[in-house]
Amino acid sequence: MIELYHNDMSVCAQKVRFALGEKMLDWKSHHLNLRAGEQQKPEYLKLNPNAVVPTLVDSGRVIIESTVINEYIDDAYPEPRLRSADAGARARMRLWTKQLDEGVHVATRIISNAIAFRHQKLALGPEALKMLHNRIPDPKKREESWENITKGIESRFFVDAVRRFDRLLDDMEHCLAEESWLAGNEFSLADIGYAPYIRRLQDLQLQFLWDKRLHICGWLERVAQRPGYQQAFDDWPNEAYASLMKEKGGEAQSRIRAILAASEANSKTA
Fold first, then answer.
1. What's the predicted TM-score (pTM) here?
2. Which CATH number fits the domain 2-76, given the four candidates 3.30.930.10, 3.40.50.2300, 3.30.70.560, 3.40.30.10?
3. What per-residue confidence (pLDDT) applies to 133?
């Protein structure tokens, strides 16, 4: 039996649900309320000491880290395959998924918290907020989270996060101008991996970032037609999160446009 410990709006959980949906696998859901700190309970920490979601349990075998989980799913349940048989295309796929773990995910966390989720956490009150933060195992992540929640889009981390996504979208547009999918002409774990991150930008009303990147628009349309898309996103709606992201994302647009305009001006004078 496959069991998944996950959260409806977690981008990492979304990409694992996407892979499970592509494989048409049945799984048992353990939905964790992250705002209530359920990921920090001792029984869950025994499965995942990092206190994050998702965690996959397959017949007693525990797998953590969403990129690793998705590769495990493709190894354990090889049909339909989500990695090309071509070694070059597989290497390209891994270069894309490597980026997620080495910067893109952090940038998404910063943008999401600084724009929208900070308001949920601030509503907990000062003492509860401090208690929740003190339980975050990674001190760097704890410091970054506190800054983003208390200072929002004026956080010292926010500008670099916006710029990171701007570079990413340039890279995606260049790649998709040549081929249908990120790692070539076959849909792969790379496309599954990036779908939740671009969907998060949409939820935050930041679609203007690809107004002139038309190949990303086409890719998004193709991704939305995949069999795993509904299980990743539509089957797990959260209206409270969606409305908050829509409202606060709209309010942050002018700040993000200013950051990008300044970056463009600096590049022209460099």
1. 0.94
2. 3.40.30.10
3. 82
